[in-house]
Amino acid sequence: MDQIPPGTDLTKTPxxxxxxxxxxxxxxxxxxxxxxxxxxxVMIILASIFVSIRLSSIFFSGRxxxxxxxxxxxxFVLITVFAGLVMAFTNVARHVWDIPLSYLLAPSYLRFIFAxxxxxxxxxGFAKSSILLLYLRIFTVKPSMRYAIYAGLMFTTILYGVHxxxxxxxxxxxxxxxxxxxxxxxxxxxWGPVQGFLAMLLDVYIFILPFPVISQLKLPRGKRxxxxxxxxTAICGILASTLAEVYRFKQxxxxxxxxxHEAKLFICIIVEGYIAIIVGSMPALAAFFRSPAxxxxxxxxxxxxxxxxxxxxxxxxxxxxxxSKTSGSSGTKRSYTRTNSETESNTHLRDDQYLELNDVPxxxxxxxxxxxxxxxxxxxxxxxxxxxxxxxxxxx
Length: 396
Description:
The protein is mainly alpha-helical and 396 residues long.
C-alpha cells in the first residue's frame, strides 16, 4: 500500500508484473471464470439430487435422523456457501498481471479471502466425517471396526479443525483499516500441501475401511458385488483430493501468479467436498429405490417390467441362435430351446400388451398363478403375466 504513488488509478494498474514478452490485459484477459461456474453448477446440482434423495429415504423409511445425516447436511451447506463465494469472485480468476489492483484492494475481496479460508476446511471435514459416521452406523458389529472408525474421525477433526486457528492467526484483517496482510496470509501456502497430502491418506483410509467387513458378509455374489461398487465410489474422493494436491503444489511453487493457480485449486476443493457428500449418500440412494413407496409405484413397476421384457426376449433370441448352432454342428445333441413362434404363441401377447416377469419360489408359484388369473403362466420357475399397456398407462 505504501509503495503505490498518490493519485494512481487502481482500475488501470495491474496487480503484478507480467512475465517477459507478455502484456497485461485488463479488459478481456484469459480467465478461469467459465470453468469455475460450469463445474461448480454441475456439482451443486448433483449433490442437491443426492441430498434430496437422502432426505426422502429418511422420510419413507421412517428411521430416525442420525449423526451422519446431520454432518452431511452441514457439510453440504458449508461447501455450497463456499462455492457461492468462489463464483461471486470469479473476476479475480485470472493471471495476476491481468487483474486490476482495485479488485484485490476492494474491502469485499478482502472479506472473501478471509471467509473462504475459514469455510473450506470445515466444509470438506464435515462431508468426510459423514462417511465415517455412516460406517459407524452400519458397521458396528466388530469392536475393531468401531475403533478404526473412531480413529478416522479423530484424524479428520484434527486435520480440518486446525485449519481455522491458522487462518485466524495468519489471514485475519488487522488494524483500524481491516486490511489483510497478504505476506502473512501467503505463508499458509506452505501448510496447504501438507494438509492436502494428509487428506489424500484420509481418503484412501475411508476407501479401504469397509472392505474387510464386506468380504466377510454372507451374500450372493451379485449382491456382494453391488455392495463393493456402492462403497467403492469412495475412490472418486481419492482422485479429487489427489488433483487438489497437485494444484496446492503449483500454488506453492508459483506464488507470483497466486490467483490463477488458486482458482484451479478452488475448483478441486469444491469437487472434493461435493464428492464426499455424494459418496456418503450412495447407500441412501439404494435404500430409496428399495423403499415400498418407490419400488411399488406404478411408474417404477412399468419401467422395471419393460426392462425385464427386453432382457427376456434378448435371452430367448440368443438361446435360440445358440441352439440352432449346436443342432447344426451335432445331430446327436437335442435342443430344448423353443422357437420364436412357439414363445409368442405361449405368451399370447397382443400389440397392446407387454410381458411382466416375476421370480417367485416354485412352492408358491401355483398359488401366485391362480391369484393372478388366466393371463398368468408358469414356466421354468418364472411367472409370466401379460399386462395391458393401456391399463398400465392409465394407472400412471
